[in-house]
Automatic annotation (TrEMBL):
Domain Phospholipase A2-like central: 43-158
Protein name per UniProt: Phospholipase A2
Organism: Oreochromis aureus
UniProt catalytic activity: a 1,2-diacyl-sn-glycero-3-phosphocholine + H2O = a 1-acyl-sn-glycero-3-phosphocholine + a fatty acid + H(+)
Residues binding Ca(2+), per UniProt: Y68, G70, G72, D89
Gene it is expressed from: pla2g10
Family per similarity comment: Belongs to the phospholipase A2 family.
Length: 167
């Protein structure tokens, strides 16, 4: 199950549900993603919070964007935003090879001046995951959001893909 914030950043919607009727489950939680200097520690949602902090957009905007934003990834990235997501996938891959749990690990961060800050972390995995998320969010902030790539179907992505050693 993947939880991402809705636009008001106080509710999270399950995009993948294990229940038999395939309905989205809603869970209400407190969010620090858009409040300056408030701390948060919640696992997989750090990336969603960093995206909201840096871009002002809900992470939902990127859930099925291009060929790499959202779960999985295949083919050739469609635009600059999609390249940001490809690079983030590679960064998480590096972290996993070092033994970090990219989807379960939690770390504390703050949103300051449209940037996810986490300089005071001691744990190496937390530092690496924060860097992955912060860099992706900064990249997405600089990349244009092209509406035609939102809800982009996987079958249009092809099979050729860039390797991670380009970064």
């Amino acid at each position: 199950m993947l939880l991402v914030p809705e636009s008001n950043a106080t509710h999270f919607v399950s995009l993948r549900s294990n229940n038999s009727n395939n309905r989205a489950d809603t869970v209400t939680v407190a969010s620090a993603a858009t409040r300056r200097s408030q701390r948060t520690k919640r696992g997989l949602l750090e990336l969603a919070g960093a995206i909201k902090c840096s871009t002002g957009r809900s992470a939902l905007a990127y859930m099925i964007y291009g060929c790499y934003c959202g779960l999985g990834g295949q083919g050739w990235p469609k635009d600059r935003a999609d390249w940001c997501c490809h690079r983030h996938d590679c960064c998480y891959g590096d972290a996993e090879r070092l033994g970090c749990y990219t989807k379960l690990s939690q770390y504390r961060w703050t949103c300051e001046d449209k940037t996810a800050e986490c300089d005071d972390l001691k744990d190496q995995c937390e530092k690496l995951l924060c860097k992955c998320d912060r860099d992706a969010a900064k990249c997405l902030r600089k990349a244009p959001f092209i509406r035609k790539y939102a809800l982009w179907p996987d079958f249009l992505c092809g099979h050729d893909h860039p390797t991670c050693n380009i970064y």
